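Researcher: Going back to the complex we discussed earlier. I've cleaned up the inputs and rechecked each line, so this should be the final set. Can you rerun the prediction on the complete assembly and write out the structure?
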Amino acid sequence: MTKEQITARLKDKFGPELEIVENNQPEPYFYISMAKYYELCSYAKNDPQLDFDFLFQLGAVHYPDDRFEVALCLCSHEKNHKAVVKVRLDHDNPETVTISDIWKAANWFEREAMELFGIGFFGHPDPQPLLLYDDWDYGYPMRKGWTGPDFVPMPEK
Amino acid sequence: MDRPRFRPHAGKITVDNMIENKDLREEEFLINMGPQHPSTHGVLRLILKMEGEFIRDLTPYVGYLHRSIEKIAENRTYNQFMPFTDRIDYCASMPSNLAWATAVEKLAAIEVPERAEYLRVIMVELNRIASHLIWLGTMSLDLGAVTPFLYAFREREWILDLFEMTCGQRLTYHYIRIGGVARDIPVEFEKSCRAFIKDFRRRVDDYEAILTENPIFLGRTKDIGILPLDLAKDLGASGPTIRGSNYGWDIRKVEPYSVYDRFDFQIPIGANGDVWDRYMVRIEEFRQSCKIIEQALDGLPEGDTVRSKLPTVLRPPAGEVFSRIEAPRGEMGYYIVSNGDKKPFRVKIRTASYGNLQCLRPTSIGLKIADLVAIFGSLDVILPEVDR
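Model: Rerun complete. Updated structure for the full complex:
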């Protein structure tokens, strides 16, 4: 499916909950509201027209003093199309639901986001730290403005 | 000085008594494997729950090589970050370079000179062969065959010499740059590369003569670690791992980047997704890569422009981009968020081993530790890619 077809199909289903990001990339980019996030993922995976059977990546983005975002890059093997779905999370209390029951690949991505950004994924089957060492006690290092004991920021020129 | 002496057990716990008393029982126990185990190819740590010799459960622990490359990316300009991509997958630095370069070029709409595109393809395919050679050597070494290891590293040496004459490096190349490549190939490169391809075709037949029909190798790999296709897709497997499960998915074919659409090559696939199928897929990829390199050398356009003119400090427009390529281990891609500054706002690195490693648990439960070693070898996971 083309960019327009994917957008139209999702817009039909989710209406105002879906917000399209205008850019000149070949893939569609959109925001989905928190309430419909799980429903959209489930629909994208199971709808025979969309058939997004491959979660390429799940990454979190921190906008300081504003919000967190979770960005999913979805791909379809059979239809050979892609899309980027994003969801905005509250800055002070970033929480959403897990989608690791829809795509098993989300399991580790969510653990990583949980550990490095401090985002809660409600209902995650194995909410353990993934990358940092066991005694890590210095907060969430991937947040903007994070400092740790040995952290020296790059000097500005 | 009192020396410790052997003292027979005071109680009545002997094997005979245990059988009589029906105290002998099966028990699950935990084994720690790694992070310095020779067959984990780096620093993977596995906690195995064993019942006798059979694996009942398995938990991988990663992160021993975590260098927070994503955080580093936020503090470097786009060009400064390029050497760090070498360190994401040090066995295949060229594809990592290419993935970053294509992502930034897509974001900033940068044109690449045609000669540079061809040089990129040649280097990436040579690196694919070198990376698969490491896989072949180490996997067969894990399975007890030492000869292919020595052969594989002999051939890899030639490729490293080719890289060294091109960019001066033998491991972290930093050759592919944003907007092209660092410099043109030297005059003697083409002759040496063609000689290598001619020689290497024969060498692949040698590897096959040693391994493919070898009964010991077949016994260790056939019908071991079967990965069903549905599960492979669900877990995010890619590259030879998903192609071994009878699925012809290759970014070079389905979504051609660079100039891959101009070459004639096939995508090898396996039959039922066991260790032997993944082995055969990679062996066949040796031949297909040779084919691509030959065509690229034939079609290499004349000229001396190998890098387009770019501003010294690159400032891509605000926006985001998601781009992927086919690295030797599978799909590698970057998700970049730019705010128009000279440094990226956020870089998310998705690597092939991240998905492939998650396939280890479902494929090896119920098998023995020796099979786990074979399965892990066939997935070709490299840990710096998982930890980043």
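Model: Worth noting: The first strand of chain A starts at residue 18 and ends at 21.
Researcher: Good, that matches what I expected from the previous run.
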